[in-house]
């Protein structure tokens, strides 16, 4: 027993010296709880919605206000035509497009059944479900309201419900989860391997003393670091290609947009994580610590970027936090290109964010690396 | 011995501070071509910091150093290209084979084509590693790892090589063979700067510098350093070495008492303390079987220097 205590005490002492591991072990439960608690809230509200109002009447405006009042739809703008709706959905500005037909108010007063179109981005099946369910509920409520007895006396009761939504699912109409998951998986895999491989590769050289020999050699810093990370860039692209091929072969994941564009933007994404891996390698003293840090970083990437849980369901504060993670932006880029055929100009926002993150990460890594190379 | 007066290393008043801590203070060293120059000093004395500045990977905060004809602060890349560096950890990729390690370092130092092939064959031959080219470096024993590390450090035929504790953890026979090779390199005109904790190795250097607390305490030929320490050595062969040590420690003029089995080794200043020591042992009734004089070594001088410094 005394020996067991001695071993435990020694272990605790070692743990106390290993500040990094200790800090991660203590902050892990709290951060995991917060991330999961916020992310798992799958009650999706605030679905970004654009409205194509062809009636422009008091009744149509009232309907739009009622939709917004449910809390499930955020009206982000009015559009002129279907092409605008398509663009908004493709660029991710909106997830739902509502089309109010031209004779909406007159049909309502004449008790003719009215069908509103609800164009929904189907790439996230969870959001889609909420959007359609809520609209259906709203239609039922409005129909009941319209069927008040006073009015029913003068007009014959229509055979079908006076107000209904016709959901039109764009992108991923069969609602297959794989189609949604595969583009995201590219991002998650790249995040994991790029950060961990880079961080570990450099820590390994330092741990084994080979970094010293590299530094004393005439090779420049750029040659050392560039040479070390180049193979991992190739590995990253290899992984991406494998996921794409497997997704296409096994799950029929579409490639609606330009693959060269996806590969080009993946370079930004990969660069961000290589820089982060470098940064980790300057903090971690051992390969083990480098690995722990990488796992620690992976957690929020899976939970709050929109990979598993819909981004829209998270509180705004968490959404803001998630902006700093490259995966948040790359997920959108990959999904939009693959599922919706988005063009570069549909993703200005995401590309700008990715570029900014890359710049910050590289600058931080360069500063730290210069100090810590020796 | 060095065959020319050409200075391969010329450090003048070299200093390096990290914040408030001064790691190296006003170090001046000159190493001539073909010389084996030993740097001795306790751990943390500033040897590694000094070495790094001479290699051009750490900028001095004071003074200057010209190494292989280039200023380390102004032309570090020229310095790096013309030196070899072997670390205590041997800097080998344990998951690469012998040939792959050598090949990597050859390319790192810009060797290509036929010249690369020729140099790789040459170092394989010199290090007798030719039969082991396919073996993983991690599977080699300490002595063979050391040979491989030296082969990698000399692949580009540098005029100057730095060896940082190159024989730590290597068996005595391998150490001896290693020093034969070092002397062979020096004879062929390569300059060698080596740090070590082994005093027998220090005696194999042409010249030495003692570094402690970032300063050079003494430098020169091993003989001269030993002579300057002014120590006489007497060895008593006694039955009760512990008792004898107890009696003699602290006697005026006694610098050091050390036992080696039945031998008590006494380092003293001048001749009188030896007689006084003998008298004291006799008075205490300790049987002294024999007493002989011995030569003072670099280790004696080194220990005396560190002790003196601690007392100060």
From TrEMBL, chain A:
Q: Which GO terms describe its cellular component?
A: ATP-binding cassette (ABC) transporter complex
Gene3D superfamilies hit by this protein? abc type-2 transporter like domain (3.40.1710.10)
Keyword Transmembrane helix on entry: yes
Q: Name one GO molecular function term.
A: ABC-type transporter activity
**Recorded coiled-coil stretches:** none
State the UniProt keywords alphabetically.
Cell membrane, Membrane, Transmembrane, Transmembrane helix, Transport
Q: Out of the domains of life, which is the source? A: Bacteria
What's its membrane topology?
A: Multi-pass membrane protein
Instruction: Please state where this protein is localized.
Output: Cell membrane
Transmembrane portions of the chain: 20-40, 178-202, 229-250, 262-281, 293-311, 351-369
Tell me where the signal peptide lies. none
Query: Per the record, a Pfam family?
Result: ABC2_membrane_3
Residues in ABC transmembrane type-2 domain copies: 147-372
Q: Which family does it belong to?
A: Belongs to the ABC-2 integral membrane protein family.
Q: What is this protein called?
A: Transport permease protein
Taxonomy of origin reads: Bacteria, Pseudomonadati, Myxococcota, Polyangia, Nannocystales
From TrEMBL, chain B:
Q: Which domain of life is it from?
A: Bacteria
Pfam families (alphabetical): ABC_tran
**Official protein name in the record:** ABC transporter ATP-binding protein
Which terms does the record give in the GO molecular function aspect? ATP binding; ATP hydrolysis activity
Domain spans labelled ABC transporter: 9-238
Where do the TM regions start and end?
A: none
Q: Which UniProt keywords apply?
A: ATP-binding, Nucleotide-binding
SMART domains with a match to the protein in the record = AAA
Q: Indicate yes or no for the key word Thylakoid.
A: no
Q: Does the keyword Heme apply?
A: no
PROSITE patterns documented for this protein: ABC_TRANSPORTER_1, ABC_TRANSPORTER_2
